[in-house]
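Entry type: protein chain
Record version: 2
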Amino acid sequence: MREQPRADAVAQFLRANGAHCLPHANGRTLLEHLLGTRDILGAWNAPQWLRDAGALHSVYATDVYLRQLISFSRRDEVRTVTSARAERLAYLFGVVRRVPFFATLARLAPDFPEQLPLAARCPDGSTTATLARGESSFLVLLHMANELEQERGPAGESRPWSARVQRLAALLDADVAIRPQWFFNSCSGIRNRQFR
């Protein structure tokens, strides 16, 4: 079973908004990348809300991928297709500046605060977004899945987990189920672990 009904709604929403027309890495479309990221999270037995966030992770654009598929003014509409939690994580993926985010987590690990203010490019002009402790780790997981999907070859074949993805995994809070010692050579080989 590849997709849940809600995941189908997310895929339809992405296609209706032109994700299949935008280019992405390795000659694939943005839609292929977003759904591939969702599939990686599915291979990790992530809950549906986190899979949905994977499918939506760069729709608002990011500090690296500058093409905005969905404007920030449509956040309520995105929530109707998925959940508030999935949309919030996709929003954070879009606004939190990744280099300071990773540097901050590396400095704090393993003692993460309950609230973490981070450098961001928010649509209201503010330069800080505050993440709850769990959000930080889920955002790292989303970055890991995003990186892995982009490391796939042009034909979509899996490649060994890179040192960069392993460094990201080291930033996970101890409460998150996926740990670096469980890495395998392909996304399909990841052991079944349950998320909280």
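Comment: The longest strand covers residues 115-119.
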